[in-house]
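Troubleshooting log. The previous run stalled partway through. Resubmitting the same two chains, unchanged.
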Amino acid sequence: MVSGYDVAAGTPDPELPLVTIGDLGILRDVEETGDGVVVTITPTYSGCPAMREITADLTGRLTSAGYHRVEIRTRLAPPWSSDWITADGRAKLRAGGIAPPGPAPTGPIRLTLGPRPAIACPRCGSTDTVSSAEFGATACKALHRCRACAEPFEAVKAI
Amino acid sequence: MDDNPYEELADEHGADARWAFGTGFTDPLAGIDTTVPGGVDADALAAYCLALGDDALIYSHRLQQWMTRLPELEEETAIANVALDLLGQARMLLARAGTILGRSEDELAFFRDEPEFRNVRLVERADADFGELVGRLLIFATWRLALFTRLRESADPVLAAIAAKGVNELAYHRDYAAQWVVRLGDGTELSHARMQAALQTSWPLVDELFAPHAGDLVPFGREEFDVVLDTVLATAGLTRPEVPPLAKVGGRAGRDGVHTEALGYVLAELQTVARAHPEATW
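Second attempt completed without errors. Output:
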């Protein structure tokens, strides 16, 4: 018997389909209530347009799994952190050519005028990389370039 | 044949569908307890969330107007992301105000007139060039980040959660803008002169950001703002503009619903489709 948690956690992320919402830490809680299930998710960024897709996907998957009542709730606090991405999720990201994030910054928020710490290239592992853009094709990613293998790559931002 | 292109958008959808965000619209505060805690003045909280939501909504729209016009693809992506973050913040803040005022976020965004908007006047003008874009973004993000950092301790847990989420985003916006201000200020003679001129354009609207207002929920000074701006300007070889603040009108400014001419143009574009077909969905 697959649990409601497993069904929910296995939902692919609409913008990073190589990982699931369980891998990313977007799934916060699953509570089974008789013939129904209450699922709590959190957005990665305030304007994340994937929340609507995730809600629809969760409803579809859980309904197919036999749950008659599916309720999706949002939770804002504490805010999503890239530290919540699981070890498995990080391995999948790297295998897919996306560098997983380093530890999220802690303490007072500092102004960054220079380059951020170099991120290891997900293809060749070199840390001889440069940031090419602070923002990427989705809210959660930035663009980098590897000087060793000359490939551009995306990295999940550490927040 | 129907020659009104909007008619095709106005098809039948479920009751939860609204204009702004497409069919299958979701409440950004779905499942969140929006009870106003005891001891919190609900009217003041609503007014405050409305003001901060309006800042983000109007500024996001101005940033969206840059789409397809930025100098490089990377900057296009960056500004689209900043605008999206701010739109997300606006949605949650307007929704929070709406739970108290009994109005939906869409009603608040699309069916209020100019004097009912409570945004600061800084966010209204269209940028004349990329220097103005990054100069104003630096001012806006530095101010809003300092404010949101404090609002994480708000007595209203919903506002505190929205602020805590926004802090991570605004820190990225501030870094992005600061790095460009340094690059342009410390660049060529021409880029330096244009960056300095760009700051001059926004500076008269800085004081209004820190003006005490009846709805303020947290004590908030401008020390952090000044330290960050001075650091960036010194690194960029730029100087703090010495220009008087933009005068109030009869003692009133943006937070009182008195705006510059530019806001009307933003609202005309932002609201026209929703007003042409109220309650339509797409």
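Takeaways: Chain A touches chain B through 35 residues (CB under 8 Å). The radius of gyration of chain A is 17 Å.
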